[in-house]
Design a protein that fits this description.
Elements: H1 2-6, E1 12-14, E2 18-23, E3 26-32, E4 39-45, E5 50-57, E6 60-67, H2 70-82, H3 88-91, H4 98-108, H5 119-122, E7 124-126
Antiparallel strand pairs: 1-7, 2-3, 3-6, 4-5, 5-6
Length: 136
């Protein structure tokens, strides 16, 4: 983004919608938008009050609802920002942290999204550079 700014080109920034709420002893954290999902993966046990629900559309991860699972939340939020996904069948394995799964995908580049992100979930937007800022 800095190089684009220095060259006078519009900078793109992939935004990931996210939300959190503390409800008594439960922390709800959401990354992405789950509308239009066609598959759901449950990671963890809801009875333990520590679990995540991953949402997929067309085989790609689009969102997660995480209850008392901040590591899953951050892993999904970062993966969505980078355009990464792991197959739903792989994500069901709770013995492997999501961060590790995404790192493996990032290294192999196999799970990277096409250059055009899903418009609703990861719409790129130009980041304006205010006049007088150090980047201007």
């Amino acid at each position: 983004m800095a190089a684009a700014t220095l060259l006078g080109l519009p900078a793109e920034h992939r935004t990931v919608p996210w939300f959190w709420s503390d409800q008594a002893d439960l922390k709800l954290q959401i990354a992405g938008l789950s509308g239009g999902h066609d598959r759901v993966v449950l990671r963890g046990d809801p009875d333990s009050e520590k679990f995540s629900v991953l949402y997929y559309r067309g085989g790609r991860l689009i969102a997660a609802d995480c209850i008392n699972s901040p590591l899953d939340f951050m892993a999904v939020k970062n993966a969505l920002h980078k355009g990464l996904s792991v197959p739903a069948d792989v994500a069901t394995d709770t013995t492997v942290p999501l961060k590790k799964l995404f790192a493996a995908v990032e290294t192999s580049d196999a799970g990277r999204a096409a250059s055009t992100p899903v418009a609703v979930d990861l719409a790129p937007s130009a980041v304006p550079v205010p006049a007088g800022s150090p980047a201007a």
